[in-house]
Specification:
By secondary structure, the chain is α+β, with helices and mostly antiparallel strands. It is about 50% helix and about 15% strand.
Length: about 130
Amino acid sequence: MRIAVGLLACLAVGALNTALADPPTEANPAAPAGQSAPATAATPAAAATTAAPATPAANPDVDKDTQHFIAEGYKPEMRHGEQVYCKKDASLGSRVNMVKTCGTLEQLKLQERAAKENVSNMQRAQTGTTSH
C-alpha cells in the first residue's frame, strides 16, 4: 500500500510540474502562425547552411574530397599560400586541452586511408582471416 501511495505521489508531482511550467517561447516570432514548432526549429539550421558558403550543400562546385572533409569538421585555412584544412579535437586524456590538426587534402586522404587499413588489419588479426 505504501508503494502505491508513493507512486501516486510521484505521478502527481510530475503532472503538477508540467502543468505549472512556463509555456515554451517561440524561437522565431516572425514565422507564420500556420507553421508548427519543428518547422521553426529547423529554420535556423537552414539559415546557417545558407550563411556558410563552405558547406557542401551551399556550394555544389566544391569537389567530393573537400565536401567530405568539411563534413568531418575540417575548416579551410590559408597557410604560407597553401590551402590546408584544420580540425580541433580534444587531446587524449583531456577534455580541456584542444589539439589542432591541419593538412592538405592529399595529406588528409593519406591519413584516412592509413587509418582504414589499420582498422582492417586489426580486424583481420582478431578474426584470424588472412584473405584480403
